């Protein structure tokens, strides 16, 4: 187990290095640049000075080396869009927002999605199944940029119950709507995948035997089916979780949330490489951790796999 | 059981919630705090590092220029950091007397040296201030900025004593008082800037919270990215007694629909912009909140005049003559004024209304240029960057197809690609906009000179530039304006750009906010605002 | 043993069709799909049947549903009914093709990774990790920039080869109006297809891993069957459920992604439209002009509901074990 973890750790470092390198050169290939994308053009002689100040006039490989060194020493540098602000400051302000939003959304998604899928599978091809799946389909067909404004319109403007925008870490009412909106689509995916996974298990011979021998249905469901039935849903949760907490720009835009998503999009628009790289590295770490956790969870769900390792 | 509990709890929750009907705006009004939608995160609050309008809203609360803004009258010049000023006969030498009580928000006095220091810093080549050209009106400033001279004492600015600032200009500038309201002319605190680095350091922490020190009616008290910028009353401000509110909260809400929702839910006093789609329903439902005001800016199509076909004046005119500007302003950019020329009407300047809608003449011109009935006309792309420009672009596309039988693609790009395509002349046509920085035609005309970074059309014209040069030497306003009219007519005849409409500020505004009047540059002086129920 | 039934493929197929026919939800879905596909593909092709979806009539903008405009008009006075139908053609093409590409890549990648295991699995999954974390937006912008001239010359090539040299501008433009919306989609297919297979691959890998350890696979192996045969004939059919479900879930997400990407220059260019773009445009105006959102969403949702219930039916029908039901 320990060997497994240390091996995954080394692999993770390699992934991060490749990720950094590829992203860096992708950014350099972007048209425009942090000081070429101003609304009002910066005169040539001034732009040259600014670019020299930030070392953007040096050969790409030197810039690459410098950024890599910065990153290894733990200081990703300063933003070029929000000029001079430290990348660490930007991330330390935005990430807690995205993290909390994402965690709450994930709780919503799991609490809604998995029970819905289990019920649908258990009562397959009944009205209950159809209505549960129809509910899930609504979550998928109506995109968050429609659900979000509808919820905000109803609960903020009409009923005046919850704030329409803004972020207050101390007041859960300000994160209820955005995380609910963010969680709904994931819930829908989870319920569909749970249902499919459960059906695979419910169809297996040993479960059929157990069912025909009249083993109590709830016990059967929890003890024998849930483990194997959750495999696809769990495989989906890993990446979905990382995607959700790295910031969803749609939700941030609808509810004016100060998360990381908007920083990311805006930085890409102008090629602000330190911020992009900082966020991509963070995202990379999250992906690695999430997928590692998923793999561990998969092992636990699937005892046969464990035995062979 | 659970269901029954929910039945009891949920209505109780609703009841509880409905009790606290007092909205954020109500509370803020009571506390004298103005809640402002400001559309985007400022790039910085150092007046020397920015070029945008968003930044100017916050900067004008934190700093004050020599001349103040009047809440009602664009042309009035109330005192600001200076109490009075005079100029010589040809308007090339101006002397400003500063407020004797003028203080920075840390209590230190504001001196003429701070102004000279600010101009020195912005013009210094190493600072590389992106908007240094706003100071080129100063004698020798351009040469200093471009590194042709290195001695700042040759530049036309001098602190005669602590309270007297003298500026010498390279040409007569009758609109200097209006110009000094722009943040590039604001002072910065020498003692604070130098505390955090060298004068020419491009970025130091001096303009971050909590270090920032200004001379304006408010001081910075909080700054969280994409969340809020808070400013509170500055007790050291010389005119503190006449500052009507205790603070302002700037919310950088990018999505105008979200901003509108925030306003209607009682979270903002004033919004940045109302999406055009919502104008009609707002007119019907809550006209008391709706504001529609002219704004000095123009929406236009930029043409790449180095492309075959587009290099022909007749083709460009034909394209312009088939834009039905009235229809666009009536149905798409609602609230905007159809452009009759490039420069909007401002002050005494009245542009010649040359742009018309005449498909007949357009077809004739196109045929003369060698494309009868649009035959063999090259396939051009119209570049847009914002989804909000899509509707107007689609309307143009349809108009050119209907009247000239030419097909134009619409190409949506991300902002970086959009800008860089234009700057490298790697585009055919692009939707664009320009907002004036001060109330003088030069803010619209100088950009079309050869080599100007905002030209990007490949077009230049010697006699156009001659008119501008000649006008720069005149101090008699009427003569200047006459020359500008000539220059503009020339621009509109050659049409490297196709003006479409003049901007309007369409936004929502609560009636509690008093002393907020329509003004052309939209820089409402924060200190004059009052909040009353 | 379940693998024995897989061998008798002809009777299996017949059984499957039979089982599908008995599933009422699947049959209703199939009919609904047929109607929508007919409406979106055939109707716009009949000359004069629909109003021109791109014809603007500014004074007639934002009019609710009426006899002359069944679904109302949009903000430029265009007929929503014909825009929904012609847009459906594009959305269905995008949904099906990109999903096919992405699921094929994802299934193969995940299956091999899960089946082979060991070092291969590590390398393949770490590549997935990297691709997950790469900024999709940058790749989209760069793809748009690189592929744009290629698309333009492809369009010109097709238009030229469909017409005689020296044809009138009128005819050239007409062909162009047909060819262009399709060729401009090619970069989009590439962008979405190659980047949206990651989650599928992880799901398939997890499923394959769990199935590969079951008794019947061991049995097949002891019989000396080749790896390919075991993987594709014995293991994958047993993971079909989640694959079908994820496929039907990918379709709506790529249809909506298409709209987002079209604002970055990939995908359909104005004035042409798609369900994604119509929903996007409608979402902003939903409070004042609800029909702008309602009708595109209705078509979009009906299609996806139908696809999902059909997918579930298909899964049941193809499941080797459900024969005993």
Describe the structure.
The complex is a heterotrimer of chains A (309), B (533) and C (325). In chain A, 76% of the residues lie in helices and 0% in strands. Chain A has 309 residues and is mainly alpha-helical. Chain A is globular and about 85 Å long. Chain B has 533 residues and is α+β, with helices and mostly antiparallel strands. Chain B has 2 domains: 189 residues, Dipeptide-binding Protein, Domain 1 (Dipeptide-binding Protein, domain 1, Alpha-Beta Complex); 212 residues, Dipeptide-binding Protein, Domain 3 (Dipeptide-binding Protein, domain 3), CATH 3.10.105.10. In chain B, helix 10 runs antiparallel to helix 12 and helix 16 runs antiparallel to helix 17. The longest helix of chain B has 18 residues. The N terminus of chain B is likely disordered. Chain C is mostly helical. Chain C has one domain: Orthogonal Bundle (MetI-like fold), CATH 1.10.3720.10. Classes of the chains: A mainly alpha (309), B alpha+beta (533), C mainly alpha (325).
Write a brief structural summary.
The complex is a heterotrimer of chains A (309), B (533) and C (325). Chain B is of the alpha+beta class and 533 residues long. Chain B contains 17 helices and 16 strands.
Per-chain topology:
The complex is a heterotrimer of chains A (309), B (533) and C (325).
Chain A lengths: L1 H28 L14 H10 L6 H13 L14 H36 L4 H15 L2 H15 L14 H30 L2 H8 L4 H13 L1 H15 L3 H7 L4 H11 L2 H29 L1 H6 L1
Helix pairs in contact in A: 1-13, 4-5, 4-7, 4-10, 4-13, 5-7, 6-7, 6-11, 7-9, 7-10, 7-11, 10-13, 11-12, 12-13
Chain B lengths: L1 H18 L4 H8 L1 E5 L15 H10 L19 E6 L5 E6 L13 H12 L17 H5 L11 E5 L2 E5 L7 H4 L10 H6 L22 E7 L3 E6 L13 E5 L4 H9 L14 H7 L4 E14 L9 H9 L3 H7 L5 E2 L20 H10 L11 E5 L5 H15 L3 E5 L2 H9 L5 E7 L6 H4 L16 H12 L3 H18 L2 E12 L4 E2 L15 E2 L2
Parallel strand pairs in B: 1-8, 11-12, 11-13
Antiparallel strand pairs in B: 2-3, 3-5, 4-5, 6-7, 7-8, 9-13, 9-14, 10-14, 15-16
Chain C lengths: L1 H6 L1 H14 L1 H19 L37 H37 L1 H16 L2 H27 L6 H15 L2 H10 L2 H15 L2 H8 L4 H9 L4 H23 L12 H10 L6 H28 L7
Helix pairs in contact in C: 2-14, 3-4, 3-14, 4-5, 4-8, 4-9, 4-12, 4-14, 6-7, 6-8, 9-12, 12-13, 12-14, 13-14
